[in-house]
Amino acid sequence: MKSIIRIEFRKLFKSPAFWLIIGLYTVSLITILAGTEAFINKVVSNAQKNSPIPIPTFSLYAFPYVWHNLTYVAGLYKFLPAFTVILFITNEYSYRTIRHHIITGMSRESFFASKLLSTAGLSILSGVTVFLTGIVMGLIYTDDIHFEIFSQKLSFLPIYMLEIFAYLSFAFMIGVIAQKAGLAIIIFVIYVFIAEPILSFRLHEDIAWFLPLKTFGRMIDVPNTALMKLFGVNFRETIQWIDVAMTLLYTLLFNYLSLLRIKKTDI
């Protein structure tokens, strides 16, 4: 197992494309997270000028609400690491490195495990980025800080990493099935941004509730804010474990299908 991890991460660390995409994702994520509150409060400030009732400004990043708010916003940009997964799994087929690994003694199960570890690593990296950003933002925007308020909604962070891992597992499956980067990205984009939204709209609510990406996104609902509550809008502020269980099942299914495809593919 150590040799598999060493080989996989050596390939990633020596890839300029990997560092470019991860750097772009990390910088854009931090920038977006840092700028969201300023943008919203600027809009609110402009709206106050013509509003007959006072509209409160608010902080998205004060403890403990920072964890819910950050993980929700960060979850909107998970397509960037998904493209990374697609590119690196399809490159294994395009450059025939998967054939080299199998010929030199690596089992197909070990190859799958190496890619699964990379996917998990990207999910953890996303979680660490959000965690560190949350600490910095929370310290800046919270007046009275103690452990209880720091940790109160911290459970959203591992749920966010699960959401990313499930999403990347779906991208991994698409890459393994398509085997070509362009085709895999087209299929992924069509399903994520066109097919599932249409299905979600057209299918009966009881059926649409089970759609995979809808399930992943449902784990972290839109955060409540003072602005939402002012207009009588209330979203769920807790994690529903049925959504977590369904996400885990989908993740297992996607990875199982990926393993089957790898085992049966003629390389």
How would you explain this protein's 3D organization?
By secondary structure, this protein is mostly helical. The protein has one domain. 76% of the residues lie in helices and 0% in strands. It has helices at 2-13, 16-48, 65-75, 79-94, 97-103, 108-141, 147-151, 156-178, 181-202, 205-208, 212-218, 226-230, 241-264. The longest helix is centred in the middle third of the chain and has 34 residues, at 108-141. The mean pLDDT is 83.
Key terms for this structure?
single chain; 267 residues; mainly alpha; 76% helix
Run of helices and strands: HHHHHHHHHHHHH
The helicity comes to over 70%
Q: What do the pLDDT scores average to?
A: 83
Q: What's the overall geometry?
A: globular
Cα-atom radius of gyration? 21 Å
Describe the biggest sheet?
Answer: none
- Unreliable spans are none
Structural class: mainly alpha
Gap from first CA to last CA: 23 Å
User: What is the count of structural domains?
Assistant: 1
Percent of residues in β-strands: under 5%
List how many beta strands DSSP finds.
0
The total count of helices amounts to 13
Concise account of the structure shown:
This protein is mostly helical. It has one domain.
Give the secondary structure arrangement, pairings included.
Blueprint: H1 2-13, H2 16-48, H3 65-75, H4 79-94, H5 97-103, H6 108-141, H7 147-151, H8 156-178, H9 181-202, H10 205-208, H11 212-218, H12 226-230, H13 241-264
